[in-house]
Amino acid sequence: MIVITGATGQLGRLVIQSLLRSVPASQIVAAVRSPEKAQDLGALGVVVRQADYTQPATLRAAFAGADKLLLISSNELGQRAAQHRAAIDAAKEAGVKLIAYTSVLHADTSVLGLAGEHRETEALLKDSGLPFVLLRNGWYTENYTASVPTALAHGALLGSAGAGRIASAARADYADAAAAVLTQDAQIGRAGQVYELAGDTAYTLADLAAEVAKQSGKPVVYNDMPEAQYKAALVGFGLPEAIAGLLSDSDAGAAKGALFDDGRALSRLIGRPTTTLAASVTAALAG
């Protein structure tokens, strides 16, 4: 039995799709805060159970009988460590045999502000005594291609990453990696493994702007700006301040190499090349 937390999220749904290629639906549990949002998964035969981080009893029930648990990091900034602690404690009580956790690239040394809660969670896992695998996910290319429509409308892609090289991959690539760890042989899913996962090739945001311009036939340039100015621009576009701060901080980190890795562990794990920047831009333009 494999349990996926955050199963109705963007990554969670993709992980379940990947698992369904080799695992019977009845052996997959979608652990979600709102089961009514997972009716489509239930229709596929996936077991749907409520799992609310603020209600430990629901976590224990959701994890009951689980051999493996994919703990997809919460999206509630500032509350992640406490929520993850609740999940880890419940997993221990439920007798889960392996936890795979979606951390962040080079979490132990990363300058990214969002890495702090990931480091806390990794420490909680180490202290728990449970067998675990760390999936240190790099940046999702979709984090940037989501801005393609705005870039086309204004003829400019905004950011504060300078000439920093970003080795991102598509969300589906990371989902396939999680599925591989949960289903492949014991060597791959071996407790204590740390996977630094990133795209096969790296690009700058200027490269991204050039690719958008090339494929769309419209002029798009990269407009680099100081971190504070970029954050203010994002807030001006309507993003919540916390999200704007995360994105601008991540760009500033990218300028220092925080989103770069050339180890190609991701493509080795999934047995194929990672999704190219060009393919991700094509998908974004297709809308």
Question: What's the short story on this structure?
Answer:
With 287 residues, the protein is of the alpha/beta class.
Structural features, described:
The chain has helices at about 10-20, 40-45, 55-65, 80-95, 115-130, 140-145, 150-155, 170-185, 205-215, 225-235, 240-255, 265-270, 275-285, and strands spanning about 1-5, 30, 45-50, 70, 100-105, 130-135, 155-160, 195, 220-225. It has about 290 residues and is of the alpha/beta class. The chain has 2 domains: about 1-135, Rossmann fold; about 145-165 and about 200-260 and about 275-285, Alpha-Beta Complex (UDP-galactose 4-epimerase, domain 1). Helix 5 (about 115-130) links the parallel strand 5 (about 100-105) and strand 6. The mean pLDDT is about 95.
